[in-house]
Amino acid sequence: MSxxxxxxxxxxxxxxxxxxxxxxxxxxxxxxxxxxxxxLVIPKKGIPRLVDSQLDDQALxxxxxxxxxxxxxxxxxxxxxRLIVNNGxxxxxxxxHLHLHVIGGREFxxxxxxx
Length: 115
Ligand code: 5GP
Fold this sequence. Notes:
It is built from two helices and five strands; from the N terminus they run αβββαββ. With 115 residues, the protein is of the alpha+beta class. It has one domain: HIT family, subunit A. Strands 1-2-3-5-4 form a five-stranded antiparallel sheet, covered by helices on one side. Strand 2 (25-29) and strand 3 (37-43) form a beta hairpin. The termini are far apart. The structure holds guanosine-5'-monophosphate.
């Protein structure tokens, strides 16, 4: 767990609706969605940034991607979504508890990495 807003959501200190939960992660709607579907897949383990993950986390990282795909399908955007991880403040990371953004339900500009 981590002492971030996501740590508090996972522990239940901040009430939040889980779209998905298993022993390793949760998925919640982003509070400030950038698209009709904007879900965050968050490991229960409080890894601050992707770059802080270790070899031990390999299975967990793969699991998060599988869950991202499942949640995208569950939300109706399984055919077209983006999966984004912001690593570090310079890349726009604001919550230092690893999370995957699943973004879909809108047009994406061809060839662009984001936006
Ligand atoms: P980052 O910029 O760190 O990659 O993404 C953090 C995301 O968390 C942002 O998109 C922001 O809107 C979202 N967020 C921040 N605080 C909360 C919160 O309390 N609840 C939810 N559901 N999302 C949050």
